[in-house]
Design a protein that fits this description.
By secondary structure, the protein is mainly α. The protein is built from 13 helices and four strands. The chain folds into two domains: 23-234, Cytochrome Bc1 Complex, Chain D, domain 2; 237-445, Cytochrome Bc1 Complex, Chain D, domain 2, CATH 1.10.760.10. The protein binds heme C (HEC) (2 copies).
């Protein structure tokens, strides 16, 4: 239950009411897109560079958004946007892997000399567009059974939800000394001014945009966001599972068994957090409820920062996120990632500690029945359980199914069930349906 007797919000997860999809967010997102479109229209209407006719014109908005997205694409793939000259957004967010990490490394190299290592795995940028803004207290709608119950922290971009919009997020890697390492926004603006696509920024924001470096930088961030909102690239909903939900494809017997184990509250209970069902209004599931949980993932000693025994990545309560540091009840919590296209990844969890889905699923099944397999000291001997979390925060770790077992119990999933769930996860890869076919999914189901 989410509330404990003291009245403090119990942040252990989760009520079944969270099973609904965030369809309302999608609606809100669409609504906001329209508003954004209108704002753009206002800019465009006063924008001599576009030579635009005044008044409301759909074509004009469309053209403005297309220019922005095109500019965003040039920016996204431009290594010149980093101090090293070697790192573009796409170096870490590989389009061939659903904009997730290009390789099996847990964390990627960056910085001025390309030798700085971050301490988090690269998330996929697919389906991030419908992420709701971060809120510390998420309540379900009034018409739901658990209305009025606080579901705890929800939403936001990055593993700790510290950026709400893609434009705020894009600022982070551009200026982080561990990533693209630009010294200031004006360095970025100057690079774009000298680039072959400088004309696109002028086209979008006016001929004098480069005169004000802060404004030019803001335009650059906005363009990156516009690119990350391109539906065909970033939220195609073209997986076999989407086709299955639309009645246009079948699942194999094994995949059906995997889906059942994924959904079953007494088996994987995965859908509790990684939502798998159509929304009440027919919207497609995102395979996350955007909630936060501490799973007690093992420490990854291959991350350089972890060589310091005093260093811990505690997610919501820091160190990268700074506004919730006084909330010990959030320490160790990370945002539930989508599982769409998860099979294209070669490292899993916020610290990339596992490299196969088999390991991930075995960890879910055996974390509590066979902890000595998962937590090891440097010498390989059995280590401390939840070794990536100081013991004062161990009470935050999730103990709901599938994590409700004890040492010596039978693991909740058999080898066969693990293989079945993995087979099912493969149906979540985009690219099964061509866009043309996908467009035929009844609108009520999208
Ligand atoms: C050196 C590798 C690297 C580069 C370069 C990089 N990113 Fe990221 N990106 C990451 C990592 C790691 C995270 C997770 C960060 C965290 O949780 O604190 C992330 C997170 C994100 C997210 C949040 C996704 C979500 O669902 O939470 C977005 C959006 C994003 N990056 C966009 C960009 C853009 C745009 C650029 C280029 C301006 C870029 N990234 C460059 C590694 C990188
Ligand atoms: C209590 C909510 C919850 C439940 C139940 C749950 N997950 Fe997760 N899942 C998470 C969170 C939170 C993370 C990220 C944790 C971290 O990195 O520290 C995650 C991460 C993952 C990842 C890694 C994805 C990536 O991009 O690195 C996979 C795969 C996954 N879960 C699959 C499953 C499966 C399969 C089940 C059922 C056996 C399941 N999860 C049950 C919350 C949950």
């Amino acid at each position: 239950m989410r509330r404990c007797g003291t009245g403090r919000v119990a942040v252990s997860r989760k009520l079944t009411s969270r099973h609904r999809t965030r369809s309302d967010w999608q609606m809100l997102y669409r609504f906001l897109s329209i508003i954004a479109g209108c704002c753009l229209l206002a800019i465009a209407a006063s924008n001599a560079a576009l030579g635009a006719a005044r008044g409301t014109s759909r074509n004009l908005v469309y053209r403005q958004v297309s220019i922005l997205a095109e500019l965003g694409r040039m920016l996204f793939f431009d290594p010149g946007l980093s101090a090293s000259g070697q790192l573009s957004c796409a170096s870490c967010h590989d389009p061939a892997r659903a904009y997730g990490p290009p390789n099996a490394r847990a964390v990627q190299a960056g910085g001025k000399d390309m030798r700085q290592m971050g301490f988090r795995a690269v998330p996929s940028l697919r389906y991030a567009q419908v992420t709701p803004h971060f809120t510390e207290h998420f309540f379900d709608d009034d018409d739901e059974p658990n209305a009025g119950v606080d579901n705890g922290p929800t939403g936001g971009l990055t593993w700790d939800g510290r950026a709400d919009r893609a434009r705020d997020q894009a600022r982070l890697p551009l200026l982080s000394t561990l990533e693209m390492a630009n010294e200031s926004p004006s360095v970025v603006a100057n690079h774009v001014k000298q680039s072959s696509y400088a004309g696109l920024l002028r086209k979008a924001f006016g001929a004098t945009i480069f005169d004000n470096k802060e404004k030019a930088f803001a335009g650059i961030l906005e363009a990156l966001e516009a690119f990350e909102q391109r539906p065909t690239e970033f939220y195609p909903y073209s997986s076999r599972y989407d086709a299955y939900l639309a009645g246009k494809a079948a699942l194999t017997d094994q995949e059906v068994r995997g889906l059942a184990a994924f959904n079953n509250p007494k088996k994987g209970n995965c859908a509790h957090c990684h939502l798998s069902a159509l929304g009440v209004d027919g919207t497609l599931p995102q395979f996350t409820d955007y909630g936060f949980a501490a799973l007690g993932v093992p420490r990854n000693m291959n991350i350089p920062a972890n060589a310091d025994p005093a260093f811990y990545d505690l997610g919501l309560c820091g160190p990268l996120r700074t506004d919730l540091q006084e909330h010990p009840e959030y320490c160790g919590m990370f945002k539930t990632p989508t599982l769409r296209n998860v099979t294209l990844r070669q490292s899993f969890f916020h610290n990339g500690v596992f490299h196969t889905l088999k390991e991930v699923l075995s960890f879910y099944a055996e974390r509590d029945t066979n902890p000595q397999r998962w937590y090891r000291s440097n010498t390989g001997a059995a280590g401390r359980k939840f070794d990536d979390l100081p013991s004062r925060y161990h009470a935050n770790v999730n103990i709901e199914p599938p994590f409700d077992r004890h040492i010596g119990d039978k693991p909740v999933l058999s080898e066969q069930e693990i293989d079945d769930i993995i087979a099912f996860l493969h149906t979540l890869d985009d690219g099964y349906m061509a866009n043309k076919q996908q467009a035929q999914i009844p609108i009520s189901r999208r």
